[in-house]
Specification:
Helices cover 4% and strands 26% of the residues. The protein is mostly beta strands. One of its GO terms (molecular function) is nucleic acid binding.
């Protein structure tokens, strides 16, 4: 974040169309400086795998296109069949599996060590 040396106001991004560059300019005077980077703002969304369960519908257990496993035990009802898919949560170094029980709809994330 840069500030005007005269007014101490925050400089705002402006396009210099003639030179095709990005500049930061003061709104109160003519002061401006060339931006060090062409990136003005980056919004990085990070979501933990456990947090994604709230946005996953239990109805996905009826989706015939999802992979199924008969080798997992539901913690809620003990049923052995569940659908699963890879979570795209970015807060982890891996892509954990999200499971949905085909019997009761309980959702859980595979334990990664």
């Amino acid at each position: 974040m840069s500030f005007c040396p005269t007014h101490s106001s925050m400089l705002v991004p402006k396009e210099d169309r003639k030179n095709k560059t990005l500049r930061y300019a003061c709104k109160l005077c003519d002061y401006s400086e060339v931006a060090q980077s062409n990136l003005v703002y980056r919004n990085q969304l990070k979501q933990q795998a456990e947090d994604i369960l709230g946005s996953v519908s239990s109805a996905l257990s009826d989706d015939p296109t999802l992979s199924r496993s008969d080798e997992v035990n539901c913690e809620e009802c003990g049923h052995k069949t569940a659908v699963f898919f890879q979570s795209t949560a970015t807060g982890m170094n891996c892509l954990p599996l999200v499971f949905i029980c085909c019997n009761c709809g309980h959702k859980w994330v595979s334990k990664t060590d």
